[in-house]
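hey so i finaly got around to running the thing on Apolipoprotein N-acyltransferase from Arenicella xantha. pasting the sequence first so u can double check i didnt mess up the copy paste, my clipboard has been acting weird all day
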Amino acid sequence: MKNSGWRGLGASFVSGALLVLAFAPFGFWLLAPLCMVAFFSQLINSSPKVAMLRGLAFGLGLYGFGVSWVYVSLSTYGGMPFWMGSIAVLGFAGILASLIAIMAWLVARSTPAGSTLRLFMLPFAWCVFEWLKSWVLTGFPWLDLGYTQTDTWLSGWAPIGGVYLVSFMVCLISVLTSAIFKTREYRMIPLIAALIGLSWSANYINWTKDDGTALRVAIVQADVPINQKWQSDSRARVIENYRTQSRALAAGSQLDLVVWPETALPIHLQHLTPEFWQTSVPVGTALLTGLIDTPSLLDHAPSYDRSYNAAALVCNVEDGVPQVYRKRHLVPFGEYLPLRFLFQWVLDYLELPMSDFYAGSGMQPLSCGSRIKIGLSICYEDAFADEYRRYLGDAGILVNIGEDAWFGDSFAPHQRLQMAQMRARELSRPMVRSANSGPSAFIDHRGVITAQSLQFTQANLVERVYPQIGTTWYYRFGSWIVLFSGIIWLLAGLLSIVTASRSNTGR
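ok and heres what it spat out for the 3d tokens, dont ask me to read them lol
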């Protein structure tokens, strides 16, 4: 490979690696368009093969560093040997990077090198790539470009077309900037200014309004070490800690809702009595907690068949009757084993701990009358924007409960909080995020964090939350920008084929 070829691969890899700094916890958001300018510039004149290799290099830089926390989950807490954990991370990053490589190859294959058409197809292609990444192999919608702009003026596009539209706008500004440097198209400068002006204006659209109530909500962050929660000798202490903190919070002032994190109760729902709920929070306060739901226990079945990672909402602690939500989108290799006939031997050989949950089906908002209507998600379910949107119903607030201790002191908890902010912005609903080890947070309907806890500490947060009524364009129409991008990309490819055919005919 020529030196220029290696330089192109190196520049692409560095661009991808630096892009990680645009996401949480770093937040250098301006790096996002700058890195995309650098990457797109490497694709403009490339052959399909070179474009594919540069796309792969960019993806390895982005995901090799951006999701390095997978190693923490697999090896530090999952017990996987160092060598195998490292290979797993590299393999995972390689799979994600290969999607960018395929995208780059398709763009280069369907458009002439050095053409304006190729340049302007890149935002559409990137948008389709991010959408594909959200469902291929159960989906991994992490590090979508739009998340880098969660706290910027570009987030005003989120209620219009979701995170993919924000990603599209970042890419569009990037290609316009690339056109200025690569082709001296200075007429692009007014277009960039117009886009910035439109983006700024979009932030002033009020999509929803308060429903007239204000809920006093408390989050209990107990920071229970992951290796202690499920031990039988510490189970009672863990449970009582949540109950003690909740009663103390409620004693200070009347609370409408107390939220405990995912699997806060290391116990099956079927083992909880009405007396448990009655003595956890005062009358008049609703309690939402994560736990394990195993319906077969009620039938005195001999096995723990069909367990669910679930949440229970008890509105009236006097009767102690919970509403139950069962997690729909499970974590592969963490909460269930896909293709068991292929991978079971690996788990048996390594003796890795893994839950074996079933996925829940359907969902309506959990509600306590008309005042409290919750659009709930567990763990990384809130990363799947379109799924969350479909099940929102008439919920006035969003709640996400998580167990981020599995990720240790890595990027993952901060990236997850950033995604929760984007869901609040897209749907124009306040978000309550309760995580065992933090960061827990209250997020308003514009995606702004109003209160946040530190990680790895016991903390209680109490805030007023204002349920919203009304809908955003994104809530009604979903990720329409993806369909639009796919159509434009297809038409551009057909145009390129027709043009090339005519050129060959005219020779």
